[in-house]
Amino acid sequence: MRRLLAHRDARLFLIGQSLSLLGDTALWLALGLWVKELTGSSSAAGLVFLCIVAPGLLSPLGGLLVDRMRRRTLLIVVNPLTALAVLPLLLVKDASDVWLIYVVATLYGTSYVVLAAGQSALLTTLLPADLLPSANATLQTVREGLRFVAPVAGAGLYTVAGGGAVAILDATTFLLATGALLALKLREPRPQPDPTHWVRATAAGARHIGGVPELKRLVLGSALCMLVIGFGETVIFELPRALGKPDSFYGVLMAIGGIGAITGALTATRVMARRGETALTALGITIFAIGCLLMMDSYAAVILTGKVLFNFGIPWMFIGMVTLLQRSTPGPLQGRAFAASEFALGLPQTLGIALGAGLVALLDYRLLLLVQAAVTGATGVYLLIRMRGSWRPWSMISTTSWSMLTARRAHTRGRSWPRWRRSGPRR
């Protein structure tokens, strides 16, 4: 961490991204509250998040754009454009203007597709490979920490000054992030021209992931887990009732989960340095599965411990996967490879959230937790077994047998091994 913070450009980049994350989190919550207040409809408010998430289906095209331009230049252009895109919120006055909120949310989601891939790709150019784990862990720590501060700040500012004030705050954070990018001393190489057809070029990131066995296992395993992790967005609303608490206890559960997530992000770098990216991801998925099992219990202490582990494992999963992706991907493919992984994880997560919302009305929430534990636990164990140099029972037996054989030879050095007894005197 000290080496990372001693890097001038890294400090500027992290400060800019932290401010941008603050604005993002505050605005997302404020938009939902705003639509709910104007229309009185929870469904209308939920549509805001759909507008933000839906552009993620275009992430492969965003990745192609990132790889066709200098990443820093692209971010310097997109950040101010995003600041401008949120300013129409100042025109929203009543329920007849809700469509403006939906338009802004859609533009915001589209901007995020480019910014997320561009930031990840720029990071690989900005920093040496050995600092990428610390940078990813720091950004994840900031992201999890802001989940405590930003919702309160966003909701509070919205209550006091209205949605327009939150829009101005968010636009300001994008401009500050742009200033941080302008202050970088980075000199990016010119993007390499790609003569292939744009459709084939867009799919190059997915082909690269499929061509690196370790990365392929990590992305596919994480995508499978995201399908059931999406259940958690609904299951958590059942926990207050299981604990005999009012629905407002949901906020306490979120805070407890946040402590686990921050702790996971803070410890990820050390574990990755010792065990590697695949082990970090696999262990994070396995810890998540243990948390699911504990949350099935009826005792408050066990459920709360499970919630901590539930949230602890997710940062390990993401930090390990993203770091391996960055380290194993050539520079010209960074944007498309990141976008392909985002698409691979985002689609099953969205489906999982929808399935969870429907299944929780039909099934006991503990059954959904059991499904989560079974799928993620099996995936985590599989990834650990398939790791290069990972523990395998048969390899351990072979190694032990060879060690015993070597020790026996050392002990009997100078003497021949016992042979089949034969009649007659020895020669």
UniProtKB/TrEMBL annotation:
Subcellular localization(s) per the UniProt record: Cell membrane
Name assigned to this protein: MFS transporter
Q: Which organism is it from?
A: Solirubrobacter phytolaccae
Which SUPFAM superfamilies did the record assign? Answer: MFS general substrate transporter (SSF103473)
- Provide the alphabetized UniProt keywords: Cell membrane, Membrane, Transmembrane, Transmembrane helix
User: Can the keyword Transport be found in this entry's annotation?
Assistant: no
Source organism, top-level taxon:
Bacteria
State one molecular function term (GO): transmembrane transporter activity
UniProt cross-references to InterPro entries, sorted A to Z = MFS, MFS_trans_sf
The UniProt entry lists membrane topology as: Multi-pass membrane protein
Example GO CC term: the record gives: plasma membrane
Ranges that cross the membrane: 12-35, 47-66, 73-92, 98-117, 218-237, 249-268, 280-302, 308-325, 337-361, 367-385
